[in-house]
């Protein structure tokens, strides 16, 4: 799955420049290639790649789900508890793994940005590092999704069901719930993480695009980064392992 994660990142970042679009003002039959928008130039590349590399985070979430549900299926968690490991300590060990995955994803993002950006920007460009804050945005986004995945795995204890529910919740249940209830998705877990990073490519069509998140978005994200682990720990301590 890690190999798939890296391959998907390479495929997305290398292939996006070959996407063609028919835009107003272009001649019929002569669409513009996405690469013509200079998406690899600093400082835009930080936000562009943070957005693109955010998609494969689902693969990391699947790794977390499989890891936790396997501990239930093979009675590994029960054995750890018998050996004296508390449920809280067990969850903290999984948190350390999730932080490691997050740092790995952030490192990969930084490497891809520097490699691609180096070839399209001037070394003395003052904007070279001005978008580095998107590394933190990416880290919070990835960690948030992993925490959601972990909570679902702890609740359901079955890998297949947990994977299906995670995907359904992130891409269907939560967005539809926000639409039906009539609240902004920023106030829901997956939505708060997803909306940290706006889709950046609209700016090449003249539309305004938000840069780094606003203070309110950071506060909501920080709250969920505390709430999700707390719920997981409560469930682990109260459930029959």
Characterise the protein shown here.
There is one protein chain. It is built from 9 helices and 2 strands. With 241 residues, the protein is mainly α. A two-stranded antiparallel sheet has the order 1-2. Helix 3 (57-73) crosses helix 7 and helix 5 packs antiparallel against helix 6 (134-156). The longest helix has 32 residues, at 87-118. The relative contact order is 0.13.
Notable characteristics:
241 residues, mainly alpha, two-stranded antiparallel ribbon
Based on secondary structure, the structural category is mainly alpha
So how many helices? 9
Q: How big a fraction of the residues is strand?
A: under 5%
Percentage of residues in helical conformation:
55-70%
C-alpha end-to-end distance: 27 Å
Q: In which order are the strands of the major sheet placed?
A: 1-2
Q: What is the number of strand segments? A: 2
How would you sum up the global shape? globular
Summarize the main sheet.
2 strands, antiparallel
Series of H and E elements: HEEHHHHHHHH
Q: Which segments are poorly predicted (pLDDT under 50) over 5 or more consecutive residues?
A: 19-33
* Rg from alpha-carbon coordinates: 20 Å
Q: How would you state the average pLDDT, rounded?
A: 85
């Amino acid at each position: 799955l890690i190999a798939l994660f890296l391959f998907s990142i390479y495929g997305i970042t290398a292939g996006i420049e070959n996407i063609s679009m028919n835009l107003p003002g272009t001649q019929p039959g002569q669409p513009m290639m996405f690469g013509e928008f200079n998406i690899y130039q600093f400082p835009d590349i930080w936000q562009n790649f943070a957005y693109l590399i955010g998609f494969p985070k689902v693969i990391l979430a699947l790794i977390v789900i499989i890891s936790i549900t396997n501990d239930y299926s093979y009675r590994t968690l029960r054995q750890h508890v018998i050996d004296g490991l508390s449920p809280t300590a067990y969850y903290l060990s999984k948190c350390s793994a999730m932080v490691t995955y997050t740092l790995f994803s952030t490192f990969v993002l930084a490497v891809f940005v520097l490699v691609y950006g180096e070839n399209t920007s001037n070394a003395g460009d003052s904007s070279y590092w001005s978008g580095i804050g998107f590394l933190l945005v990416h880290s919070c986004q990835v960690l948030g999704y992993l925490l959601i995945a972990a909570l679902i795995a702890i609740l359901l204890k079955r890998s297949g069901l947990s994977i299906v529910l995670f995907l359904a919740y992130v891409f269907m249940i939560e967005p539809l719930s926000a639409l039906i209830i009539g609240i902004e998705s920023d106030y829901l877990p997956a939505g708060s993480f997803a909306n940290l990073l706006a889709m950046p490519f609209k700016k090449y069509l003249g539309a305004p695009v938000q840069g780094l998140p606003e203070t309110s978005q950071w506060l909501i994200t920080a709250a969920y980064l505390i709430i999700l682990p707390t719920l997981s720990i409560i469930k682990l301590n109260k459930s029959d392992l």
